[in-house]
Amino acid sequence: MFFRFNSLCRTRKVLVNCCKVSIECCESSLISPFHCEGVCAYFSTNSWRNSCESSRFDANVCAQLVDKDDFDGGGDGSVEVENLGGRGGKDLIIKGCGNFGFEGDDGLGEDSEDGGEEDDDGTDNDNDEEFRVLNLYDRNRKERGDINRVEVREDELRNPLVKEICRLIDRRSDWTPKFEGELRHLLRSLKPQQVCAVLRAQADERVALKFFYWADRQWRYRHDPIVYYAMLEVLSKTKLCQGAKRVLRLMTRRRIVRRPEAFGYVMVSFSRAGNIRKAMQVLTFMQKEGVEPDLGICNTAIYVLVKGKRMDKALRFLERMQLVGITPSVVTYNCLIKGYCDMDRTEDAIGLISEMASKGCSPDKVSYYTVMGILCKDKRIEKVKGLLEKMTRENNLLRDQVTYNTLIHALTKHGYGDEAISFLREAEAEGFCIDKVGYSAIVHSFCQAGNMERAKEVVNEMFTKGCIPDVVTYTAVINGFCHIGKVDQAKQLIQQMHRHGCKPNTVSYTALLNGLCRNGNTSEAREMMNMSEEEWWTPNAITYSVVLHGFRREGKLSEACEVVREMIGKGFYPTPVEINLLIQALCQQGRADLAKLFMDECLKKGCAVNVVNFTSVIHGFCQKDDLDDALSAFDDIYLSNKHPDAITYTTIIDALGKRGRIEEATEMANKMLHQGLLPTPVTYRTVIHRFCQHGRVDDLLKLIEKMLSRQACKTAYSQIVDKLCTFGNLDEAYKLLGKVLRTASVVDAKSCHLLIESYLKKGNALASYKVACRMFGRNLVPDLKLCERVCKRLMSDGKVKEADNLMLCFVERGRMSPERMQDLQL
C-alpha cells in the first residue's frame, strides 16, 4: 500500500496518541545520514522512504529501542508498521523505533565504546547446548551455490565514485542537505562491489555501520546480499558485536539468504569483545533458524573457544562434529594446536600433530611452525630440530627458506641471537640464502642485548656475502650504541651510512636523538632536529616526544613546552600521558599556574586533555596551599565537558580538610557519592586522617557509613582507631572498639595493640587491661609481651587482681606456663 506524504501528516495525531511520541515535519530540511543514525525507518512502503527524504524528525521523537540479549527476539532497531485498518492507514501501530539522535548515538541500543560486554565470571558452560546445531548437518547433502560474493578488488578502492563518497562521509560534521543529495545520487550509481569498497575504506568501523544503515533507508535503493556479508566481515574485525548481531537480524527481515559464514562473522565479533558465551549462543540462534552448519562455522566455533581458553570444550566440539560426519581439516587442528601453545601445553600440541595423520589429516607447515615458535621462546633448540626432522621424514614437508626465516625471527624475538645464527648456518649449508631481513633480525637481537661486538661481526659478514645492510640494519646498530651510551659511535655510523649509499631515515635519527637525550645532551638533539630539513628527513611524533622528555628530565621545562607547541603546529598531538608528565614536572617546581596555562593551551589546540591532567593541576595548586585556584580548576573540568573522578574529589577533600573546612569537605564527599563514584582506599585514608586531625569524629562516622554503603572497606574502623590514637583521642577510639572487633582479624589486633600502647604511654594501665579483656572476649589473643608490660604497670598501681586475671587468660589458652605467671607476680 502506498501512502502519500500528506496522508502521513494526517496520521500524525494518531501516531502521537498511540506511541506518545511527536513527529515534527519540516519540508525544507533533510535527514542527515549521520544525525539519523539508527536502524529505524524501515517501512514496507516506498512512499514512506520518499517522505523521509523531505522531512526531518526531532531528536526525541522516537520511543526507546528495546532489545533482548538472546537471538530469538526481534529488535534490530528497525521500525515495523502494522496496518490494522483500511487503505487510509489510520490505525497504525509502531512496534519499535530507533533513536533518531545526533552525535554520540549510533542507534544500536547496546553498543558501547568497546562494542560488547565481557563474560561475568569467565567460567565454562558445560551443558554444550550450542552443539545441537551440528545435528542439522546432512551427510548426503549436495553442495549449494554460494551467495554471489565478490572480492573487492584494489581498483574499486580507487574508483572516482568510491573516493567521492568517502570524501563526503569524512565531511559529515559539515553536512548540509546539498551534501546528502549528492551522496544519495552517487549511492544509486554504485555497484555492489563499490558499496563494499566504501564500507571497507572507512577508518572507523562505526562510521561504516552508520553509512550502511543510512543507505539501507534510501528510496529506490536496496543493498545487494554481498553488501551485508561485507559489512559483517568489517564488523568481525572489531568489538562492535551488537552491531553485527543487528545486521544479521536485518538480513532475516530482508529475507537475505544467510550462509553459515554470516553467523561466523558475528561469533568472531563477540569473541573479540570478550563475550565467549554470547559468541557460542550464535550457534543456538543458527539452529533455531534452521541453517545447516558446515566445516567453516565449525572451525570458527573452535577458534572462538580456543581464543577464550576453553580447550576442553573445543575438544568436545571436535568430537561432536566428527560424530555427525563433519571431517575436520588441517585448519581445525591448527586452531587446537595454537590453543595448546597459548596455554603452554606444548607436549599436547606435539601429540596432536602426531595424531593428525591417523585421523586422515596430515599436518602442514603452519602446524609445525606454531609449535616451533613456542619451543623457540623456551629455548628448546633440540626439540625444534627434532620437529624439523619429523616434518621432513613423516610428512614430506621440505624445509625451505620460509622455514628457516621463521625460526630465526622466533629466536631473535626472544633475544637468542647465537641460536638464530646456528640456524642461519644450517640454512646456508642447505643452499638457502638468508636475506637482509633475517640478518637484520639477528643484528637487532645482539644490539638489544648490548653485545655490539657480535652485532658488528654479523654486519661485516653481510658485506662479505654481498648482502648489503639496509637502513633497518644500520638503525638497529645505532640504537644499540645509544643503548650502551656510545653516542659518538652512533654519530659516526650515521656518516658511514651516507658513504655506503644508505640514506638514514626518521627512525635512524630518532634513535640517535634518543641516545643524546638520555646522555643529557637534549640541546644538541634539539639542534639536530632543527637541521632536519637540511639532512632531508622529517621528524615525526616520536621524535618530538623524545626531545620533549629529554628536556623534562633535565628540568628545562620552558624548552619542553616550546617543543610541545612546535609539535602541535606540525600536526602531532601529544598524548594525555605526555601532557601529564610535563604538568607534574611544572607542579613539582611550584609552577602550578604555568601548568594550568600549559594545559589550557593544549586544550584549545585540540589535544586530548583528560581528567587526569586536571587532577594533576589541582594537586599542584593544593601543594602550594592555593585552594582557591584548585577549586577554580575543579570547576573548569565541567566547563571542558569532562567529569572529575574519585581521585580528583579525594584531592579536593584532602585540601579542604587540611584547611579545617570540614563542612565543605563533607559536602564534596557527598557530591562524589551522589554522582555514583566509588571511594577508593586513598579516599578512606584521606577522609579519616583529616577528620580525626580536627577531632570531628561524629561527622566522620556519619560520612564513613555513607561511604561503606557504596564501597566496602574492611579496615575503615581500624584506620579510625589508629588515627585517633595517633592524635591522642583515646576515649573516642575506645568507643569504636566494638566495631573494630566485629571481624577479629589481624588488622583489628594491630589497632587494639596500638590502643593498649597509647593508654600505657598515658599511664592508664587499667584502660589497657580493659582493651585486652575485650580482645579475649572475641577470641583474639593480644600480644604477650605487651600484656606483660600492662601486668607490671597494674601491679605497680596496686591492681593485683586485674593483673592476675590478665595473665590467667594467657595460661588458660596455653600461651603462658604457670611458672612464668608466678615469676611475673613476684
UniProtKB/TrEMBL annotation:
PROSITE patterns in the record: PPR
Record's keyword terms, sorted: Repeat
Q: Where are the PPR repeats?
A: 259-293, 294-328, 329-363, 400-434, 435-469, 470-504, 505-539, 540-574, 575-609, 610-644, 645-679, 680-710
Q: Out of the domains of life, which is the source?
A: Eukaryota
Q: Would you identify the family this protein belongs to, as annotated?
A: Belongs to the PPR family. P subfamily.
* Pfam assignment, any one: PPR_2
Mind telling me which InterPro entries this protein's record contains? PPR_P_subfamily, PPR_rpt, TPR-like_helical_dom_sf
What ranges does the record give for the region Disordered, renumbered to this chain? Answer: 108-128
User: What is the name attached to this protein's record?
Assistant: Pentacotripeptide-repeat region of PRORP domain-containing protein
